[in-house]
Amino acid sequence: MKRVLFLLLATFIFLSACQNEDADNENNQDTLTISTTIFALEDFISKIGGEYVDVESIYPPNADAHTYEPSSRELVELADQDAFLYSGVGMEPFAEKAEEILADEDVTVVPLGENVHLRGEHNHGDEESSHEHESDDHEHDHHNENSSSIHIDGVNDHYHSGDTVELEAHTDENTDVDNWKWYSRADSSGEWAEIDGQSSAQYSGTLDESVEVKAVLSDDNNEVVAESEPVQLLIDNHDGESGVGDPHVFIDPVLSIQLAENIKNTLIDLQPEQEEYFTANFEEVKSQLEQVDQDLQQTFDNADLNHLIVSHAAYGYWEERYGLEQISIHGLSPTQEPSQSELVQIINAAEEHGLQYVAFENNVSSKVSEIIQSEIGADSITLRNMETITQEDIDNGEDYFSLMEKNIEALEKALTK
């Protein structure tokens, strides 16, 4: 009898184990494994995918998203995932290589920002229209009264990163003055900075990012005799993510709603039976992003100041949406170093606007920013640019929304007289 009971018990345990294993396998099949890049995307994917998604960023904590290159082994390991979701707005320099590696693999690859219009982006299809708008804008610009007397020749329709640009300025005025200076700015809302080493009517330089330039002719007393209209030097690498526009879309809560919706749609494509679940989670994320938008608007509306010195130009979307004027030490990428004249301009701007803070970032180390902070006697704040986050923030369970709250607290401090 004992032997029969023992056999029955052993059979029951075996069948239970098989059922548990089948359940585990079913659960594993229901969970999507996803690799991504930017922290903001990782957080949105986790929140929208919930229990049906296992997501991890390919970036280590606090990496510089502009320059980080994963190893070949890490790229090959992407083939083990169900999907690789990245921003696709020019932030990830390795994206093209990753797509090539995954081309023959059963991995869904989606650039989540491909339908997001980037700040400063050049669209060839709208070229004629954009030129018309530029002409209209120039009519309202406060140029020197002789601004139209200098013309710049040699501007191409577009350039590729690293191209040598050669321009020539000439004036219709009869003058013996030959004191030429060239100036550049990132876009029409930026401040002009003199370009070092350009002191003749001929300009020659390497183009690494899209800029506007102008030529100025001055007399011996440094009084402006003539000035050109700005001309645009546009980079278009024809790669779908040329970096022409500002890639920091995830710092903008309104554009982040577009990213989140693209995530929702991608997850539904991968697991259509969970459409209701993903949609409900997306609506929650959308609601939280709308609240961040309101909080940022209120912060800037109530601020005493609207200028802020930042370590790199990651906050252009706050300029467009909320009226911030960022004075960036580096360009759209932290690798773009300022010239000596640009440093002088930054220091002068700090004094002019009474700025008492320099905004550093969690993943950007800048000796130049430290020098400027010391030069103007400023305090520092830290902004989270949502590219990557620190190990401490990970350990503390921070997410996009808690870090945005910290950003708002830092802004309130820095923008108060």
Automatic annotation (TrEMBL):
The UniProt record lists the keyword Signal: yes
Biased composition (Basic and acidic residues): 118-145
Protein name per the record: Adhesion protein Adp
Transferase recorded as keyword: no
Pfam family, one: ZnuA
Matches recorded under Gene3D superfamilies: Nitrogenase molybdenum iron protein domain
This protein's UniProt keywords: Signal
Signal peptide (residue range): 1-23
GO terms for MF: metal ion binding
Region of interest (Disordered), ranges: 118-160
InterPro entries documented for this protein: Bact_metal-bind_prot9 (IPR050492), ZnuA-like (IPR006127)
Highest taxon in the source lineage: Bacteria
GO biological process: metal ion transport
UniProt source species: Oceanobacillus iheyensis (strain DSM 14371 / CIP 107618 / JCM 11309 / KCTC 3954 / HTE831)
